[in-house]
Amino acid sequence: MLAWAKNYRRAWLAGDLAAGAVVAMMMIPQGMAYALVAGLPPVAGIYASILPLLLYALFGTSSSQSVGPMAIISLMTASALAPLAAPGSALYVALAGQLALLSGVVLLACGLLRLGFLANFFSRPVMNGFTIGSSILIAWDQLGTLLGAAPPHWHGPSAALGLGALALLVLARRRGAALLRRCGLPASSADIGARLAPMLVVLGAIAAVAVLGLDRMGVRVIGQVPAGLPHLNLATSGAHWLLLLKPALLIGFMCFLLSMSGAQALAAKKGEKLLTNAELVGLGAANIGSFLSGAFPVTASLSRSAVNFSAGANSQLAGVVTALLLGAALVLPTGWLALLPLPVLSATIIVAVLGMLESGTLRTAWRYDRADALALLATAGGVLLMGVEAGVVVGLLLSMGAMIWRESRPHIAVLGRIAGTEHFRNVDRYDTETRSGVLLLRVDAGLFFGNVEAVSARAEEELALHEGVRELVLVLSAVNAIDTSALFGLLELNATLAQRGVRLHLAEVKGPVMDRLKQSTLLERLSGQVFLSTANAWHALSSKGDDCQDSIGMAI
Amino acid sequence: MLAWAKNYRRAWLAGDLAAGAVVAMMMIPQGMAYALVAGLPPVAGIYASILPLLLYALFGTSSSQSVGPMAIISLMTASALAPLAAPGSALYVALAGQLALLSGVVLLACGLLRLGFLANFFSRPVMNGFTIGSSILIAWDQLGTLLGAAPPHWHGPSAALGLGALALLVLARRRGAALLRRCGLPASSADIGARLAPMLVVLGAIAAVAVLGLDRMGVRVIGQVPAGLPHLNLATSGAHWLLLLKPALLIGFMCFLLSMSGAQALAAKKGEKLLTNAELVGLGAANIGSFLSGAFPVTASLSRSAVNFSAGANSQLAGVVTALLLGAALVLPTGWLALLPLPVLSATIIVAVLGMLESGTLRTAWRYDRADALALLATAGGVLLMGVEAGVVVGLLLSMGAMIWRESRPHIAVLGRIAGTEHFRNVDRYDTETRSGVLLLRVDAGLFFGNVEAVSARAEEELALHEGVRELVLVLSAVNAIDTSALFGLLELNATLAQRGVRLHLAEVKGPVMDRLKQSTLLERLSGQVFLSTANAWHALSSKGDDCQDSIGMAI
């Protein structure tokens, strides 16, 4: 906690101030836009970017993460609240805060229970598919606001403003950096400058509305933004705790996955070590802060974090600067924001989410592993056809299915002895000697419910191939753990083999594994023995048999 | 398909006939009882035991499995249909069939897509917890019927009949076999004889009701059972397809898990090889058959299969015999069944499900692996507190969480050379030599999204421990596969290390893995080389460095 503050170096200050300011200027349009996506008043997006940032700075460990509203999490928020309350109602606002509170508690609890390993739950193609599906869904939902009427209709002035802003933003994204470089800016500043295009477009749009009186022509604007810092909010609805639990679990889970997928890459670039459990605590605290501010669930946005990183953020102070600047913006007069036209905010949303579409993962996966590519497409399709919550579940099932499939095929090698040595290697890859009557199997994976059946089946197969075998040795040199299901599996294998007159032995059992096995009945029921080394097993078991320089298959 | 019929041996016939008859006598009370659990008329339980058995005999591969109604699946059926229709209504009956159809299609599709590996989805403690929770729930639900009134009230004659039957059945289960042995029956027949107690108790109860006129005293009886085979049923409700999809997925999944958990053990006893994909097809066909008969979802019951096995079933003909006998029972007059008292059926249900409670798994897990024991209790608690569907989800999450946790800690060894040989082994366990500047890491697990971060993190840790290292070799001798996520992870590791002047090399890449990597950009972007063997890497990379007989740690 606050380790960055204790070790703060003066040299970091310039970078932190610059990054903090740049992110604040990104955050004003983005925060308001993502509040709209979540179905909330725009100012809630600013509220979600003050206290949460300060709390993340207190508890989080990444110097680059930029916590705040994020498109996909806002979409999930809207989708969770839609069946429970009418957007804009006081209940809706209260439930959004409550959802942030619950998600925060879930994240905090996972952090304290050290469940950071859950970041490995989604495969990258599935994550990419989820992002693609959600981005398209968000962009699609914005079309009506962009055009000022539900498509295929449109409202002339709104559509002109919206599509104009869209064109400018796309242009800025595509050519902005190159243009600024040509104007003499250094490459890194030019990249950052191009990222401020949404703020400039928003300012221009406000000016256009004011000068041309577009609001009187029917262009919807965001209206009065209340000035001043957010009040302390403690509003919750007692009747909705249980109903919000499932969405809170899903949102907390996705907050973490979305945050980590970006953070890992940025941390690696800096040679920083990311403490995943501390990140969970940081994100949890940020969401609880968002609840206290009367806002909605937040996470670190990959694109904003990348800007924060390249604008020079050296520590969590950058986030503190962002928070202070946003707080200042709320304390200053906010009347000028009232004329911000909604079609332009929609344009910034559409450009931002379409920026998350990248086809590189799909193309790589399609060439490299068709099953992963199909999982990506299925997850994207799941989000588009069944909604964002169902998409998470589809993604989970596909990732888990792939994992189980992999686990059900562990690497298992038949071992033989390198002649004249005490070394035992895979008979398929080395010139080894084996003894008839003895079969050595090395399992290169921990034994657990996902693979113990496969190990038993492989043992049976090898026994069928090598008819004279009476001694089966499982070499457990790479087995870190044996779970309860695998323990039962071994007990059953031992019993089945004993019926057929084959003894089961264990070799090279690791200390911690052995300690645990001593708490079970396996060692006393084992038809064979436990050997310290494969060599011990070899000498003890083959004293009766004959040496043969051949493979087992030939020896029979 | 029908392989058993083609290879049928005359010697099997006696066993198949006996087992078929025994199971038919078990099935009459059991089928009717589990139909009641599912909220359906008792005769549906008999319908569910004719065509499904014939279809399973046609497609299934296990000679011992006894397909038909099963308590937990009936509970899941009732829980799925409760929000959709009133028990006893025509819609309810139609939806039960539709659920069997959908579950059957799910199972069939999984079989044809070769998804049999999904049988590894639940750990054994979680499965046990699920069974325990469901059994208690079923028994609890039967209390009202057993006592003839909602507890704490009771209806005297009903309670007397129900509790009396309960006592008799418990006695038969506990002492029946011993008693029959004392009467001179051989041990195996005595065990089977004791299993027929429910049928005898049911017959006795019918007689008691008839003689004492208990039905006129308010004891509820099952009433008229329609005679004749089931009509072909094709009734479905067009409005309910989507609503039934999720329960059908869960029920199909649990049908498969419940069936396989028993089948594996019985197949191992016979030295039979169970084809899991064919089992899926068999179960799918059976459920579609149950739909056609106007019944409800079915699966193989562990207890019934065990009786089938010990009564001598040698092939699927035993199931055909059961089906034919049950068909005959329906064609003969069924009037005598009308007086069967419901409290006695409840007693058979309670005794059957409480027979599924076994504390051995919990006790073993508690001593051996506390986390597995807690997963068991959490799953049982989930079923009891949140219902059977939520229980499946809790079980899934706990099993998957445990798997991910395991996967996020793959076995990784730093390798050194056994002096004077070309053998490379774990430096922690063997006396090896290493070279400063070169680090060999062997990963004992396939690389995929669940562990690639851990591999990168471990590589970074080892590099931090061994400062002078400029060449990192990943030895992939135990790596069977690298998925798309791991491919990206390796690309990122390669780039990060290159920034720091460390080259990444691969050694002992397996053929299929290499073929796939050639479809990616990894090989061209790799800062180092790909070596055929660890020895090649060792010689090529250490020609510049110095030999040292020490561990790397010492060498720095």
Q: Kindly give the count of domains of chain A.
A: 2
SS class of chain A: alpha/beta
Basic shape of chain A: elongated
The biggest sheet of chain A amounts to: 6 strands, mixed
Count of beta strands of chain A: 10
Multimeric state of these chains? homodimer
Mean pLDDT of chain A: 88
Strand order of the largest sheet of chain A: 4-3-6-7-8-9
For the CA atoms, what is the radius of gyration of chain A? 30 Å
Low-confidence stretches of chain A: 545-556
Topology at a glance:
Two copies of one chain form a homodimer.
Chain A: H1 3-6, H2 13-37, H3 43-47, H4 51-59, E1 67-68, H5 71-81, H6 90-112, H7 124-147, H8 156-182, H9 187-195, H10 197-212, H11 241-270, H12 276-292, E2 299-300, H13 302-310, H14 317-331, H15 342-354, H16 360-368, H17 370-386, H18 388-407, E3 412-417, E4 424-426, E5 434-435, E6 438-443, H19 452-465, E7 471-475, H20 484-499, E8 503-507, H21 511-517, H22 522-525, E9 530-531, H23 534-542, E10 547-548, H24 552-555
Parallel strand pairs in A: 6-7, 7-8, 8-9
Antiparallel strand pairs in A: 1-2, 3-4, 3-6, 5-10
Helix pairs in contact in A: 2-5, 2-13, 2-14, 2-15, 4-12, 4-14, 5-11, 6-11, 6-12, 7-15, 7-17, 7-18, 8-9, 8-10, 8-15, 11-12, 11-13, 16-17, 17-18
